[in-house]
Amino acid sequence: MRILLVALNAKYIHTNLALRYLREDICTEYPNVLIKEYSINDNLDRIAGEIFEAKADVVGFSCYIWNLNETMAVIRRLHPICPNVRFVLGGPEVSFEAEEFLTEHSEVDALVIGEGERIFLELLKAWQKNIDPSNVPGIAWRRGEGIMLNSSQVKPLSLNDLPFPYAKDEDFTGRLVYVETTRGCPFNCQYCLSSTFQGVRFLEPENFRRMFRQLLKNGARTVKFVDRTFNANKRHALKILDIVREESAFFADSEEIRVHCEMAGDLFDAEWMDYFRNYPQGLVQLEIGVQSTHEPTLKIVSRPQAFEDWKKYIIEMKSIGIPLHLDLIAGLPAENWIDFRTSFNDVYKVEPDMLQLGFLKVLKGSGLRRQSGGYGLLFMPDPPYTILETAVLSHNELLQLHRLESILDKYYNSGKFRYTLREVLKLFPTPFDFYHEFAEFWHKQEWFGRQWQGKALFEKIWEFIRCQLEIGVNERIDFISWPKIRDSLKFDFYLWERPSVIPDYLQDEDTLEMEKTDQWKRIQETIRKDACWEPIIPEVKKMDRRQWNRNTAVVHFMSDLQRDDEAAAESCWYLFYYQHGKATACRYEGS
Asked: Which sequence ranges are marked TM in the entry (predicted)?
């Protein structure tokens, strides 16, 4: 029997861990098992064509809320021309309301409910022997015109008894690779499916070492732990991170290696901070789910936490240089517009590297799904079941938050507007007010309907501030702050990449006139030739004059945006150095 395992990943760079577990679990019995990975953005006809040409007897799909629609579209293309192929679905999206799902999707032959290791193998054996799979626990299947469900409890497997998912040599260069060292979660968040399972299981650290070593050998440089709460057990988590450090040190490009962990902020303590101070900078990146700072909401979703108490660790980790992603969820019960505004501002003020604003997904099997009526939760009937309205947050308000999220990603999370945002935010009561008003300005201008090149975003924020000044909406914008706003935009503009042309709106008329003079050009040339750059930028010694000019820009500013002392108000010159897609800004101090 020929088996094909398929995943439609969110992006091309992603990999699917579940398929690799299943492949290694069944390959002894079925050596012809194949894996095919695609992206949800790929052409579905091409995907269906390649699956058809594989001539498999059983095709298994790994399903999630973000790929189920595309997965079913592929199966519907295949079913009429593959009447003898059995289609099996597994994953969190099909593990609840299984009978209803099979009733609605006649093309699917069976569902694997919950963890698929061992179960999928037993199902295949039953089909190969042409016997009814009634004795296989944790499955739903089609028997003639009827639908059968075996809901017998399956004893959770120890992670140390699972097969080694990366036994096959694969090239993971440029890919995002997933690993797990725990299953389960110590918390009981009612919006999360982890709340449906009890306890946490741990992988022996030395088993992880073997896995991580294999991934690095095969080119993986970005590894993400799928552990729901990586720091659920401090001793385990520290040992895993020790192994990451030890194994990474064997590679010459160790500075390119990064692991991403989801941790709980309220489980940090002084020992964690001491550990991070001595950890290689850039090797670990953390994602922390704040979700909300509104206490009544946190109580409803069974995740009470005191952000005010543990945010000090966020500030400390930032000072150490650990990249931090903090998450918020809009549309949680009992959190209205004002409450969410407070949550947003609370999290924004600690200045994470990324503030990921998500929207509640009312998942099948979750506690909030069962209690949705009591909190007035209206949500999309199809995956990903995104919240549409709550008893205290209208649909119109949620649409506004979606627009705000788009602006947040373009400007804050891109990391390209650091100095601009710092200055512009001074003009608004809170960060939330700026992003909301800016998003509604975009909406009014009908800019969301187009794809804008990166540098067009500078013009958009300039237009927003200019319009506010002209119509007198924001009285805090005055002609004193205007030059510094322009300088901040210009500074970020040069940090984006070496520009060939500078838009007029980034320069005042006096500067434009001076730049045309020979004296101005001589100053720029003198700064470029100054020997002061050699200890700061050692690469200059290896470049001829043409290369150096091509990789640098010399720019004058009315104020120094990188300083916060009295000298910040003085005009200054900066040299921007561009190499390997990165820009470095160096103030010219003279020699």
From this structure: none
Residue 481, pLDDT above cutoff 80 = no
Joined tokens for residue 35: 């894996």
The 8-class DSSP code of residue 386 comes to B
Q: What is the DSSP letter of 156?
A: P
Instruction: For residue 581, name the pLDDT band (cuts at 50, 70, 90).
Output: confident
Average pLDDT of 357-377? Answer: 96
In whole angstroms, give the CA distance from residue 190 to residue 385. 15
Q: How many CB atoms lie under 10 A from the CB of residue 474?
A: 15
CA atoms lying within 13 Å on the CB side of residue 313: 21
- E strand or H helix at 552, and its extent? strand 552-557
Long-range interactions of 444-452: CB distance < 8 A, separation 24+: 448/403, 448/406
Mention every residue, 6+ apart, whose C-beta is less than 8 A from residue 137. 119, 150, 152, 153, 154
Band the pLDDT of 312: cuts 50, 70, 90: very high
From residue 79, alpha-carbon distances to 52, 73, 125, 141 in Å are 10, 10, 22, 16
User: What band does 199 get if pLDDT is binned at 50, 70 and 90?
Assistant: confident
C-alpha distance from residue 110 to each of 134, 135, 462, 520 (Å): 12, 14, 56, 74
Is-contact 387 378, C-beta < 8 A?
A: yes
Record the pTM. Answer: 0.94
**Residue 343 burial class via C-beta count within 10 angstroms: exposed 0-12, middle 13-18, buried 19 and up:** buried
Place of tokens 């040069």: 494
